[in-house]
Amino acid sequence: MFSRSCEYALQSVLYIALHSENGKAVGLKEISTSQQVPLHFLSKILQQLVRGKVLTSIKGPNGGFKLIIQPNKLRLIKIVELIDGLEIFSRCGIGLKKCSDHTPCPIHFDYNVVKEKIRQLLSKKTLAELCDDVSQGRSIVNYL
Questions:
Q1: Residues of the chain with pLDDT under 50
Q2: How far is Cα 56 from Cα 141, in angstroms, rounded to an integer?
Q3: Residue 144 is assigned to a structural domain of this protein
């Protein structure tokens, strides 16, 4: 459902939240290596999050990226909105252009239920909750 860019954005923001103790910025290369995301591609994604005021970018030898929004106030829907837009929740599940409630594709109504549940999940779930799940060992993230 999400683009690869959006997946990388979600993974990277989680990584930054988990590794920015004491206000330390997390370097682009560190994020790229740990999350196995091409450096140039990741740079463009993170710059979108800087423009969207989720991250700040710090230049220099100790530079990198830091969260602007506190993890307990950052809902995952914000990241999805900045990278993929919210139109993903109105697209047809099989890619038809004229799919609607009046002219539904074969999975239209079932898929709408799933999309709405995902929208609700992302609107409710905060970055802090993801960090807690990882810290408590209830879920994993990529580490090298």
A1: 144
A2: 22
A3: no
